[in-house]
Amino acid sequence: YASPLGMTTLGVSIIALLMLLSLLPASTLQAGSNDRPNIIVIMADDLGYGDVSCYGAKAITTPNIDRLANEGIRFTSGYCSASTCTPTRYSLLTGTYAFRKQGTGIAPPNSPTLIPAGTVTLPSLLQSAGYNTAVIGKWHLGLGEGQPNWNGDLKPGPLEIGFDHCLLLPTTNDRVPQVYVNDHRVENLDSSDPLWVGNKKPTEDHPTGVSHRSTLRLDWSHGHNHSIHNGIGRIGYYTGGHAARFRDEELADRWVNDSVKWIEQNRDEPFFLFFSSHDLHVPRMPHERFQGTTSLGLRGDSIAQLDWCVGELTDALDRLQIADNTLIVFCSDNGPVLDDGYKDEAVEKLGDHKPAGPFRGGKYNVYEAGTRTPLIVRWPGKVQPAVSDQIVCTIDLAASLSSLVGVPLPNDEACRDSFDVSDALLGKPGAVGRPHLIQQDNGVKGNFGFRVGNWKLHRYGAKNTYNVELHMKNSAIEPFQLFDLQTDPMETKNVIDEHPEIARQMKEELDTLIKQ
Ligand code: NG6
Ligand code: CA
Prior knowledge:
This protein has 516 residues and is an alpha/beta fold. The chain is globular, with a radius of gyration of 24 Å. It contains eleven helices and 20 strands. The chain has helices at 9-23, 26-29, 63-71, 85-94, 122-128, 251-266, 298-319, 368-371, 397-404, 422-425, 500-515; strands spanning 38-44, 73-79, 132-138, 165-169, 181-182, 185-186, 196-198, 228-229, 232-233, 237-239, 271-276, 326-332, 375-378, 386-393, 436-440, 448-452, 455-459, 464-466, 474-476, 480-484. Residues 45-46, 85, 281, 333-334 line the site of calcium ion. GO terms for molecular function: arylsulfatase activity.
């Protein structure tokens, strides 16, 4: 019947319902908070298994990373794909082993984009599920075609493979140039001072870490002696772009500020943020407020800065009341290294801190510590706090997160090495991780680790490997070795002669997987 105001009962009810809904907090109204949580992947740089207190560090405390572990699942067999940066990041985004594609080792300053435009990627899959996507931080996967067009449009790049927004350090901060790439452009570039980047000295009198070594405030130990910026020698040469250059000390603040702003802008839609920290990669030059705050020197101070970044991001989620529908994955891009080319006292101030935790090796090799790194998943209310020994890897995020949000992989080639281990990542009872995992180093000489259950096979294409004891010394190696991680997590006793049949099967399986 008609109400006194001329409205139907149904009309009145709808208005009442709308008024009631408007009183609820925004998070309750968000589309599909159960099946489409916001997703933040926080990737640390060169962070070892034992570098954070929730994984056993005593010399340093990381309260914000520990909080993620206490409120989520801490994986003891969580891996990245490679023991260097570029191949791990390539695999994270494409769900494909980097050794399948030539040229995916550590990218030089003028590297073109390594992931072709239109490739099916973790961000493109989430984008097709309606997510707003951004990458903020270190890129190191190349930009542009042929080589980056530093003074023009830097494309293709992240925006052509599924990110709606990017704010990037183009490679690593020990490589030139120290500028931000904001979407397709170098930020604050003055056209009267064009940016030039190259691998040869531009002029005879160009100041370098060799010619002007006495002026450096952080001396180099190997490499890192080409152009100087901010008193630090770098890999590669550059001139111009002075207005665009940033100070190393401000990187983390800028990325945190921009990330929080971007989250605020996107809080009402599901979003995917890849927060790609530069800590604790060299040059380790955290903000002044972190310098000297740990006993471990600049390496430890950079871990403190990383932990602060994590706290700022989680605080923002709390403040915006979206923590409960935000899934966070915390991980690293490769294992630890001490002296990675600068005299920053990482070795001298180590004390009894064990960056690799209970494992052997680190960055650049296929021993466990090269790729077995902190990996934590937090999703309050959905993931019960636990410790899991299931094998999961950053390469699995593409298939797992797209499955979680209900987007099927479009074909067999897409993300072909990525396993849907979403149930294991969320800690569902009885859920299992990967049955096997290939671990690669930088991929140039074909060194592989292959884990199946608790067996670990090493296969070397090179005669030497380094950083086995966290020092950059060469160690001679047998082409094939077999370890039992159950009894020998340190990979000290090669048992290949005791278990010839297991070794034979694993060699064959590895070979098949590599050739696939
Ligand atoms: C090496 C650099 C090292 C680091 C690494 C890449 C020298 C001597 N060493 O070539 O300092 O930059 O490349 O690290 O130049 S990664 O984490 O980005 O893979
Ligand atoms: Ca790295």
